[in-house]
Write a structure and sequence with these properties.
The complex is a heterodimer.
Chain A (H helix, E strand, L loop, with lengths): L1 H20 L4 E9 L6 H12 L8 E7 L1 E5 L4 E5 L14 E5 L3 E8 L1
Parallel strand pairs in A: 1-2
Antiparallel strand pairs in A: 1-6, 3-4, 3-5
Helix pairs in contact in A: 1-2
Chain B lengths: L4 E8 L2 H16 L3 E6 L6 H12 L5 E7 L4 H7 L4 E6 L8 H10 L7 E5 L16 E7 L6 H4 L1 H6 E7 L4 H4 L3 H11 L4 E4 L8 H23 L1
Parallel strand pairs in B: 2-5, 2-6, 3-4, 3-5, 6-7, 7-8
Helix pairs in contact in B: 1-4
Amino acid sequence: MHEMALCEGIIGIVEEEARKRSFAKVNVVCLEIGALSHVAPEAMKFCFEAVAARTIAQGARLEIIATPGTAWCMACSKSVEIKQRYEPCPSCGGYQLQVTGGEEMRVRELEVD
Amino acid sequence: MSSERIIQVERDILGKNDRLAADNRARFQADEVLAFNLVSSPGAGKTSLLVRAVSGLKDSFPIGVIEGDQQTSNDAERIRATGVAAIQVNTGKGCHLDAAMVGQAYDRLPWLNGGLLFIENVGNLVCPAAFDLGEACKIVVFSTTEGEDKPLKYPDMFAASSLMLINKIDLAPVLDFDLARTVEYARRVNPGIEVMTVSARTGEGFPALYAWIRRRWAKAKQAEMAAQG
């Protein structure tokens, strides 16, 4: 369950930001998770609550902004949107795709007090 | 009045691991060590494959192995029986190796000056895909006893790997294993993935694997010399 390790990474980032920018309470943690990243948003929410307990992020709400998967189709020579890695190009049906976006897993912003 | 405010962060969740992986990569480069991260589901034959490979390569290169498992040191002991140095990392409840574990294990290996480092990840086709360890590339070991559609079921791992080793190829005839279909599925998720068939039991395909490793090693050496001018 690597979502656990990822949530520990999020808490680490929040704690560092708290020291740098001096805040004491986090209300919302906003993530940007790509459609082709290594994360199941539901599992992430489940783990976050457990990992955040007794940290500065205890009780914070996790908001996940899903970003689309994009790929460059070598056959069509254009950028296309895909939902999964094994999907064919929506234009030509081929699999000559190079993923160009949608792999990100980032903490975008925090709502703090 | 509420003092609530929004703070822009824009930081990668895996940023810490990625920084440590970059440190590992720099150390491997300084030691001219070529590192491979072997990934597979449990039971695909990574350790048997490594036992044979390090036996075949140990007279040509200094070799070290880092073994990742949740528990036991069985795998490291199997490697050490060949005379090659191995460090066992137990991840406990963890489902993957991370860059910090590999950095610490590398400290405990003898100096591999100009040699090869094999990192055998925890048997798991999901989590290890996300964690860069500083390797030159990932090698995914897939065995003929697994379903041909595994690359579609676990696309992240096949997308992250440069080479797919299809192990237990000696069993293919009795299993009605469809090699062409497996390769087609793997290339759907990763058009550039290289494919080789091997048998850790009989040794079939290993000369080609050694040739591939030597080519990668020579290429890394060349790049290093070019960088030094």
